[in-house]
Amino acid sequence: MSSVRQQIRIAVGARKVWWSFTTQEGLASWLAEEARVDSRAGGRIVLTKAGLGGELGDASGVFLTLRPTRKIEMSFDRSENPAFCSSTINIQIANDGGETRVSLVHRGAEGPFEDEEEAALLSKQWKGALKKLRKLLESQ
Asked: What angle (nearest 5°) sits at the alpha carbon of residue 40, between those of residues 68 and 83?
């Protein structure tokens, strides 16, 4: 199983970062056009995102682990985007001085994770998304 890893520091508290990953409003503010979230272990998550051609598509899955302000793990079982289908995303959130460190690992069994160019594109997309999250949170 291959993976994409990204890490970023955000100059806000862990609660704000947690909110951004676990609420409809939070996810829709930086990662998706729309989000439907049941923020509990076993709860469903559905993200509606624009594809490369501008068309909207859903990625849906389930929260596996939720440890408030520390850890989020979700598994996606359906998506128009091959990078999300049959993949797991693990997010670690940690206070680090006056900042919050966010470490993300996106694992998949096949598809984009096995192709170097596609894995690099996915890594670049996550890096851009996390930078967007940092800019949003630090400007509030």
From this structure: 95
